[in-house]
Structure formats: structure tokens, C-alpha cells
Specification:
- By secondary structure, the chain is mainly alpha-helical.
- Helices cover 71% and strands 3% of the residues.
- The chain has a two-stranded antiparallel sheet with strand order 1-2.
Length: 279
């Protein structure tokens, strides 16, 4: 692994420290349904990208665009991801064989697993344990030590964890780039693998969050046929959410519809289907 203090490094420790603090304070700022944490992620990287690509306006603009895309993960353990991303951007700026697709696909592949692990470990386990201890300290007499205990312990551990993982991600990322990404064949394999993993993650999110079912039943005498259960579910469970997801992708990617237009279209479609008693 290459030492970050060597003269060929484009970024200094001060640059990484500033980016780490920016991530700690703004990782979940400006969340929206179109990009979730994407704008905050781009905000964290913008000073880094400006230093790396400032002399090349086209490359700088492309870097901003690729980091304005949808991004969402658990922010504590997920601090590893922007560190890795910065290392990859630095390696790309130095002329190493790291494509835009590899950077984007790495983010897409990592954000899902880190979201699941982080939510389970920190939000689902660690936070409730601290809250139970804090509540036991103040539930009977309103002792302020309880909330103070939770705030101090939670903030200390979380901020420390984010700081450590952000820098660790940066150190790991550039090491991985120097070790593997000079091999074009290996780069292609990694890119393909990360693309597949990213698609699986996005597909899993769509399958578990998109809800669409037919409530209409065909009735003829004593016979009642459930269109959803006896036809669509027999063909493929979840086929309607899949078709809806593909339709949204087509309208955004091919027809260039905005997120606002997509949401409005879904609301109108849902209203019509409900009014007709179909869905």
C-alpha cells in the first residue's frame, strides 16, 4: 500500500480531514426522494474534486454529475464509502486506469450492504441498548444524567467511528487502486461484478419497497376469480411492482422525465386505478 504522505499524492491530510468533518456534519443534510443523500455526498466531495480536476473544467463537471446521483446508506458505517471514493478519484486524477463506471458502481455496490449492516448493528442494536440504560437512569426521578449519558456516549462513539472509517476508507481505497486497477482485465471483471451487485441491490430495493396489486375480482355466479392471486401471482409473484419499476426507469432514462413528473404520473395512475376499482 502506498504511503499517503509521499510527494506524488494530490491530496493532503488536511484535505481529507476537512472532507471527513464535512461528512460528519452534512452526511444526511438536504435529503430528498430523488437523490436521498446524493447532494450531501457531492457536497462532501466538491472541494476534493475542485482540487483534483479544477484545471480541467469538463472533468470537474463530470465528477460533480456522477456524485450527484442517487446515494443512500447508513451514515456511520457508510463513512467508509466516501473515503474509498476520494481515493479512487485521486487515483483517476493521477492518470491511473480507473473509469467513471468503476467509481459509480463501487458506490452503488457498497451502499446497500453497509446500510443493512449499519442499521442492524447501530440503529437496531447499539442505540436501543444506550437508550435503555439512559431511561433506567432517569425514568423514576427525572435525573438529567440519563439523556446526557445517551447524548455524550452516542455522539462520542458515532463521531469517532465516522472519523476513523472515513480515513480508513481513504487508505484502503488508494491501496486497492495501486494493487489491482493497473490490470485492465481485472478492472473489467471488477467493474462487471460491481455492476451486477449494484443491479441486484437496486432490484432488491425495488422488490421490497414498490407495492402494486390488483384488487379486482372476476365474479360469475358462485365463482370468484382473484386476478392478483390466481393469475399474476401464479405467473410471477411481484410481477406488477417489476413492471412499474421498469416503466419508471423507461420514462426517466429514455423519455428524460424528471422525478417530479414521475411522482405526479404515479399519483394520477394510482388515482385512476383506485377509482375504477382495479388496484
Amino acid at each position: 500500500m502506498k504511503n499517503r504522505n509521499q510527494n506524488d499524492s494530490l491530496l493532503t491530510k488536511k484535505d481529507i480531514d476537512k472532507a471527513a468533518w464535512s461528512y460528519i456534519f452534512f452526511a444526511q443534510a438536504t435529503q430528498n426522494f430523488e437523490r436521498m443523500m446524493g447532494l450531501a455526498f457531492c457536497h462532501v466531495l466538491e472541494p476534493i474534486l475542485k482540487k483534483l480536476y479544477g484545471s480541467d473544467s469538463d472533468e470537474y463537471k463530470k465528477a460533480l454529475q456522477r456524485h450527484m446521483q442517487f446515494y443512500n446508506t447508513e451514515p456511520q458505517l457508510g463513512a467508509l464509502i466516501p473515503g474509498i471514493t476520494i481515493a479512487m478519484e485521486e487515483a483517476r486524477a493521477k492518470g491511473e486506469n480507473i473509469s467513471e463506471e468503476l467509481i459509480v458502481n463501487t458506490k452503488n455496490a457498497l451502499m446497500g450492504p453497509f446500510a443493512g449492516i449499519g442499521d442492524s448493528m447501530l440503529i437496531g442494536t447499539y442505540s436501543p441498548i444506550l437508550l435503555s440504560i439512559a431511561m433506567s437512569l432517569c425514568i423514576h426521578d427525572g435525573n438529567p444524567i440519563g439523556p446526557l449519558f445517551f447524548c455524550i456516549v452516542w455522539l462520542t462513539t458515532v463521531v469517532g467511528l465516522q472519523w476513523f472509517l472515513f480515513h480508513k476508507g481513504y487508505n484502503m481505497g488508494i491501496g486497492a487502486a495501486n494493487l489491482f486497477f493497473t490490470n485492465k482485465a481485472l478492472v473489467d471483471k471488477i467493474t462487471t461484478g460491481l455492476t451486477m451487485m449494484g443491479l441486484i441491490v437496486i432490484g432488491g430495493v425495488a422488490a421490497t419497497t414498490v407495492k402494486a396489486s390488483v384488487v379486482f375480482k372476476y365474479v360469475n355466479g358462485d365463482m370468484a376469480l382473484s386476478i392478483q392471486e390466481q393469475i399474476f401471482d401464479k405467473i410471477m409473484p411481484g410481477i406488477l411492482p417489476l413492471l412499474l419499476t421498469l416503466a419508471v426507469w423507461y420514462m426517466m432514462d429514455k423519455k428524460k422525465w424528471s422525478a417530479t413528473k414521475i411522482v405526479l404520473g404515479i399519483v394520477i395512475f394510482a388515482a385512476v386505478m383506485v377509482f375504477l376499482g382495479i388496484m
